[in-house]
Design brief:
Blueprint (H helix, E strand, L loop, with lengths): L2 H24 L5 H29 L11 H53 L32 H28 L8 H30 L1 H24 L23 H5 L22 H20 L2 H22 L4 H24 L5 H9 E2 L16 H22 L6 H24 L6 E2 H29 L5 H24 L9 H37 L4
Parallel strand pairs: 1-2
């Protein structure tokens, strides 16, 4: 058995035991629906991160491996536009679920679209003649070089763009609504609520951990189509679990469209019926879709989705348009928040200024962090020695499992650490945590400079890449949970949802901005590995220093920011 498959088997065994223990320890505390939705989310994230680990490698791989052989600067544009749309579409998907579909139909429709997207990507691959893992034996770099006897790209571009569009739209319906649905099974103030979301987010990271070791390994050894097919099968399994959950009545009325206005004809469950659902709170929801105008029905939403597919394909292909769209949205957002802040009193106005400042720094953070799926992925392919200790060899995409693994290991530590520090009055303020996150991110990039010094034949030891991911993960744990929580506390109640939408818009802008950073690492066709390594390290040093300077600026501003927060922690 190849070592890559042995690692995959061990990971599945360990995770299987871990999941069984978690469910056994919590099954009497939480409703059964939580664990079923936990499994649905696990498989959806398995599908999503499987594609994320493979996309840039697939786009730039040689035709002889079944890929497209797209020049890296173009591939980075496709990847960036896809990532940006992944964060934009949930804004519409959440609204459509709240107003028309309800959570059940929205999640189902999103899962169907994403499964179709993965299988469409599987069909888009060209004929494989050698595995991607064998490409490293070739003398030239793998991005822009066309080997003799191969075409410039053997994949089907139309199917590739169609697959990405389906994934983008499916994610918009699925992602925001399954998280919101979990919250419906717990009343505000329920002491089980935080524990439920901890279990749910564990499913996200388990899926993200398993898929690079599974889809990535299969794709790079057996062929790209098998990798995407595996991701699609994972999504189908998640969809099957969701359909079972709905069929057994575990979802209850919480997943249905909202209660219509008084006086409209519809049936609803009674409080007694809701109370009989395991672990549910006693609220009344509509169990049938209320009468709506024809343009506010589920059928119109489904048809509208098909109409949106060509638009999504066009935006991914003409990704430079996304630059202008997101630049415009970003400027409008800042101008709107400044303008609306003037309508509030001094306390709320200054709190909104804090949100604007943190939006800038979080965009910087994610612009650099999300290079993991693009420039760092290509760097791993071209300039990282993937042979570990004791003869263990990893594929390029396997390294995408390091971040979620470290999250599962260190997230409980961070949770306990903040509580421990708070009890002693030592917990740093939110802007200081942001600065710590940025500093750790910058340090991670600078570690690769040490890797360059230890490189043999322009191949950096894998240990330095793993250390980079460790520092990036610690930075993520310091910044990400704090940011989401802080927006909900700082935003005026009337526009809290809007401010949260702006927060996710910053992630979309960050993905798109990452395109320009990634393009700085591109070397001319036919360049040596030494030239590729030198160029990449120069860019990573620049990124690392920018992150450290940003951390320093934020740290210097933290006394002012704390004053503007007016007691919010």
């Amino acid at each position: 058995m190849r070592t890559e498959y042995l690692i995959m088997a061990i990971a599945w065994l360990v995770v299987g035991i871990w999941v069984a223990l978690v469910i056994a320890a919590n099954r009497k505390v939480h409703p059964k629906v939580l664990f079923l939705l936990f499994m649905v989310e696990l498989w959806e994230r398995f599908s999503y991160y499987g594609m994320r680990a493979l996309l840039i490698l697939y786009l730039t791989s040689l035709a002889i491996t079944g890929g497209f052989n797209i020049p890296k600067d173009q591939a980075y544009g496709i990847y960036a536009a896809y990532g940006a749309l992944v964060y934009l579409t949930p804004l519409a998907g959440g609204i459509l679920a709240d107003r028309i579909l309800g959570f059940r139909k929205a999640i189902f429709w999103g899962a169907v679209l994403m499964a179709a997207g993965q299988f469409t990507l599987a069909l888009s691959t060209g004929q494989q003649k050698i595995p991607q893992t064998d490409v490293q034996a070739l003398p030239a770099l793998t991005g822009n070089t066309v080997l003799a006897g191969t075409t410039e790209g053997s994949g089907n571009f139309l199917l590739m763009y169609l697959g990405l569009a389906l994934l983008v739209l499916g994610n918009g319906f699925f992602k925001p609504n399954i998280s919101s649905l979990i919250g419906r099974y717990y009343e505000q103030g329920d002491p089980r609520r935080d524990g439920a979301f901890t279990i749910f987010y564990m499913g996200i990271n388990i899926g993200a951990f398993l898929t690079p070791l599974t889809c990535g390994t299969i794709a790079e050894i057996e062929g790209w189509s098998y990798g995407f097919m595996t991701a699609g099968l994972g999504m189908c399994l998640g969809l099957t679990i969701f359909l079972y959950t709905a069929a057994q009545g575990y979802l209850g009325p919480h997943a249905e469209p909202p209660m219509p206005a008084a006086g409209s004809a519809t049936s609803s469950t009674t409080n007694e019926e809701v109370a009989n659902l395991e672990g549910n709170n006693t609220q009344s929801f509509a169990t049938t879709t209320p009468a709506q105008p024809w343009y506010l029905t589920a059928s119109v939403v489904y048809l509208g989705t098909f109409a949106a597919i060509p638009l999504a394909m066009w935006l991914i292909h003409h990704n430079e348009v996304m630059d202008w769209i997101l630049l415009g949205l970003g400027l409008i957002t800042v101008a709107y928040m400044i303008r609306i802040s003037l309508a509030y009193d001094l306390v709320e106005r200054q709190r909104m200024w804090v949100i604007i400042l943190l939006l800038f720094f979080t965009t910087v953070f994610w612009s650099f962090f999300e290079l993991a799926g693009s420039a760092i992925n290509i760097f791993t392919l071209q300039n990282v020695n993937k042979n570990l200790w004791w003869g263990i060899q990893l594929t390029t995409s396997n390294f995408q499992a390091v971040n979620p693994l470290f999250i599962m290991v260190f997230a409980p530590f961070f949770s306990v650490m903040w509580v421990w520090l708070a009890r002693r009055g030592w917990e740093p303020a939110a802007p200081v945590k942001f600065a710590i996150g940025l500093a750790l991110l910058g340090a991670g990039f600078l570690v690769l400079n040490l890797g360059k010094a230890a490189a043999v034949e322009a191949m950096v030891p894998a240990l330095f890449l793993i250390l980079m991911y460790l520092l990036h993960t610690l930075g993520e744990l310091a910044l990400s949970p704090v940011g989401l929580s802080l927006v909900t506390k700082l935003a005026p109640a009337r526009i809290a949802g809007l401010c949260m939408g702006f927060w996710f818009l910053s992630s979309a802008i960050a993905h798109q901005a990452g395109k320009w950073i990634s393009r700085l690492t591109v070397v001319p066709e036919g360049s040596s590995r030494e030239e590729s390594l030198q160029k990449s390290i120069e860019v990573f040093n620049m990124v690392g220093m920018f992150a450290l300077v940003s951390a320093g600026i934020l740290l210097a501003l933290s006394p002012i920011i704390k004053r503007w927060m007016h007691g919010v922690r």
